[in-house]
Amino acid sequence: MKYSVRTITHEYSPSEVARVSGVSTSLQRDWRRRGVIQGRADGWNKYDLADVIRMTVMRAFTQSGISLETAESVSSLAVLPVMDELVRWDDVAVFTGDQLSAEQMDQIRGGHVRGASGDEQFTFVALPENEQGASAARLRNLADGERIMGKSGNFYGIALDHSLLAHRIAELSPLPIIRFEVEVKDDG
């Protein structure tokens, strides 16, 4: 059976972003003005899921004492693992249109986010920052943080749990966040 899938993701308004990420609308305006986040070219500020994840991470890291510049640069490390987590949940990512088997739906979910291994549970930032920012990486477990800390000579850091972040976003977002529209094609 041949089929096509169109993916539609929820666009977040600034007030939805504020509710989900904790980044107030005034801080969003400031970050847009400073070029930290991008507004849309049409003048209407709507954000996609990746923007929401990045802003949530930037807020968490800056509140933990990391500079905005470093938080901005490392926030992208969390985007793919969090999206990979979210796309696997039935209430967050739904299928509409023609019916597919559970195996086909799992295959679509598994292939939706490219670049995430599925086993990177944390984004870790070693502290303190230096002139070049902070050492950071995606990790399977916190014990792997030792390799980051060993390189920089630091002995502490901040870890962001991708699964907990995904749960928070799903809990506070209008659902579904991702919709797969399926159309079965005739084999003939």
Structural commentary:
It contains 7 helices and 6 strands. With 188 residues, it is α+β, with helices and mostly antiparallel strands. It has one domain: Multidrug-efflux Transporter Regulator, Chain: A, Domain 2 (Orthogonal Bundle). Strand 3 (122-127) and strand 4 (136-139) form a beta hairpin. Helix 3 crosses helix 4 (68-86) and helix 4 crosses helix 7 (162-172).
Properties at a glance:
three-stranded mixed β-sheet; alpha+beta; globular
Summarize the structure.
The chain is α+β, with helices and mostly antiparallel strands and 188 residues long. The chain contains 7 helices and 6 strands, in the order E-H-H-H-H-E-H-E-E-H-E-H-E.
Regions with little confidence, pLDDT below 50 for 5+ residues: none
Strand content: 15-25%
CATH topology (level 3) name: Multidrug-efflux Transporter Regulator, Chain: A, Domain 2
**Radius of gyration, rounded?**
18 Å
Number of extended strands: 6
In N-to-C order, the SSE pattern is EHHHHEHEEHEHE
Show the helix and strand layout.
Layout (H helix, E strand, L loop, with lengths): L1 E8 L4 H8 L3 H9 L15 H15 L4 H19 L6 E5 L4 H11 L9 E6 L8 E4 L5 H8 L3 E6 H11 L5 E8 L3
Parallel strand pairs: 2-6
Antiparallel strand pairs: 1-6, 3-4, 3-5
Helix pairs in contact: 3-4, 4-7
